[in-house]
Structures are given as C-alpha cells and as structure tokens.
Amino acid sequence: MKASQIPVIDISPLREKETDKNAADKIAQEINTACREHGFFYISGHGVSEQLQRKLETLSHEFFKLPEEEKLKISMQLGGKAWRGFFPVGNELTSGKPDIKEGIYFGTELDKNNTQVLAGTPMHGQNLFPENPEKLRETVLQYMDEVTQVGHVVMKGVALSLNLDADYFYSRYTKDPLILFRIFHYPYHAVNEELWGVGEHTDYGLLTILKQDAVGGLQVKSRGEWIEAPPIENTFICNIGDMLDRMTGGLYRSTPHRVLNKSGKSRLSFPLFFDPGFDTIPKRIETISRPTEDDSAERWDKANVHTFEGTYGDYILNKVSKVFPELKRDVL
Predict the structure, then answer these.
(1) pTM recorded for the entire structure
(2) pLDDT in 10s for each residue of the chain, 332 residues
(3) Residue 306: in which H helix or E strand, if any?
(4) Is residue 190 part of a domain?
(5) DSSP per-residue string spanning 208-226
(6) Structure letter (DSSP) for residue 189
(7) What share of the chain is helix, strand, coil (3-state, %, to 5)?
(8) Is residue 202 included in any domain, yes or no?
(9) Of 58, 75, 197, 257, which sees the most CB atoms within 10 A?
(10) What is the spatial distance between Cα 275 and Cα 203, in angstroms, rounded to a whole number?
(11) Can you give the residue range of the structural domain that contains 112?
(12) In a domain, 315, yes or no
C-alpha cells in the first residue's frame, strides 16, 4: 500500500464574492491535475466550523451506542419513498456483498406540501430523526446546509478547471441539487480482507464531500494502485462521481475506493453526495473534444456510464435499488 499522494487544495478564495483571478486560476489548475491523476483531492478553507464537526461526531457516537431496538425506531423500512433512516450492519450491499457497517440515510428536508413530495417523487421527503440524542436533528440539518454550500463552491472550481463559466454546473444541474447525506459507523472487527467496511466501488453522482474521523481506513485506487487516503485535520476529501465522468467523456474519471478498518477501533464517516437535480438530464460537455472511451471492462461494476440515457433520477434509482433490494418496491 503506497502512502497518500492526494493533494490538499485551499478553496477559500473561491468563497469570496470577488474572487481574485490569479487565485481562481491556481485552484482550477490544482483541481484539474487532481481529477486527472487521482479523482480525489482534499479541501481546506471550506468554512465549515470545527465546533459543528465535533458536535456531529459526538452525537453520532451517542446514537450508534444505543441498543439495536432503539436505533430501529427510525428504520429505513419506515422511510418509504423518501429513502431515509437507519440500517443495521450487513444490510447495505456493495457488488452484492454485505458491508460491515451500519448507518443513517438523510436527504434535503422537505415538508409534506413540497411539489416533489406531493408528486410522490422517490428520494424526496422528510428525514427520520431519533429522539435520542435529541440535538442530532438540528446538527445534521445545519451540517448538510453548510456542506451543500461547500459543494457549490467546489463545483465552481471544477467548472473553471474545465475552462467553463464558473456557474456552468449551477445553471444546468445543481441549482436544486439532489443532496444525499450519510452517517456511517464501521464497528471494529478482526481484520479480514474479505470483510470490507465498504467494498470497491465508485460514487454515482457529481461530487462526494467526505468528512472522516481520526481513525482512517479509506483506500483509493489511483493510477491502478491502491493508496491510503488518511484523515487530515479540518479538511474534507472530495471525489468525482460517475456523472462527472460521463459529462467529461472520461477526462475526469470516477475513481474506485473502499474501506478497511484495521485500527482496532470503531470508525465514523460522513459522506455528503452533491448530485445533479433529480429531473436534470446529464449531458456531455460540448467543449471537451476528447473521444469517449468505453472503459466498462475495467470498471468495478462493468457498467458503461457513457451510454445511459434519461434523467439523473432514473440513473440513481436504478443504482441504489441494488444497494437495498428489499426496499426497491417501496421506493420505485
């Protein structure tokens, strides 16, 4: 296993109302290089308070220490079409194999009068929050809101890295993004490389923004070799999803990654998936002249992301229904 070569990029200049062009150009070049070489990069200068992050970790530990019957009071079986709630260890599948993790699924909080909710649109609705710890609700909603703003900033940098207008993704795909947030708990178990916390996979959407705790365990397949992606204090790690791979014709490729917890401790991770709007239709960026290659033979799931036709909602529903096959009937 090689040491991490994944760069850390300070995005703070992109958060300014008036971004210095030289600073923006530098960040754009750093993102371009990272996306071509690794598909992953750390970000600093993101503006999410460390106090909020610590509070989220503390409350998450409290939740996962509860008895199973307490956690199941917000079971995903109760989430219906919104696809929200808790799942126990072994209930989520990667490539058909159960992951050694438990977790809670969240999304943008929408009231019952929202037009998408009234229409019965899958993956839209209200979250399921536990009674204990009681402050988890307000903390999760604040964290999701702040990291969603980070997503808009990072995608501005991605647009600039592709020589596009800064608002390219916002104006076409992410004005109303599909936000999926997860809190995952990887309980300690004896190290066995057949028992992955999460098996090899790529993410489905545009961009994943991941907060790790101090334990580590994330591995990234960079240039055909697995490298560690250890936690770095007060940074998030970002990675490309399949839709950005599709939009760039494979110029920016979604990178396989996996989790193996070898620490002897339990581990928490907090991925926020910043994805195209549910009803948007992902298209190839016209200014990228690079010919699209069919790399399905090399991909973890043997899928060709470049041949899909339809909305992002069509795509994501097809994918996530394989993760929780027993819930497929409730959601679709």
Answers:
(1) 0.93
(2) 455 689 999 999 999 988 899 999 999 999 999 999 999 999 999 999 999 999 999 999 999 999 999 999 999 989 888 989 999 986 766 666 677 789 999 999 999 999 999 998 999 999 999 999 999 999 999 999 999 999 999 999 999 999 999 999 999 999 999 999 999 998 876 455 555 556 778 899 999 999 999 998 899 998 888 899 999 999 999 999 999 999 999 999 999 988 887 777 888 999 999 999 999 999 999 999 877 777 766 665 667 788 888 999 999 988 776 666 655 556 65
(3) none
(4) yes
(5) EEEEE-SS--EEEEETTEE
(6) -
(7) 35, 20, 45
(8) yes
(9) 257
(10) 10
(11) 8-331
(12) yes
Residue 3 within any structural domain of the chain: no
Beta bridge partners of 320: none
Radius of gyration of the chain (CA): 19
CATH for 198: 2.60.120.330
CA angle 135, 138, 142 (to 5 degrees): 135
Number of structural domains (the chain) is 1
Residue 241 to residue 234: CA distance in whole angstroms: 23
Q: Which amino acid is at 92?
A: E
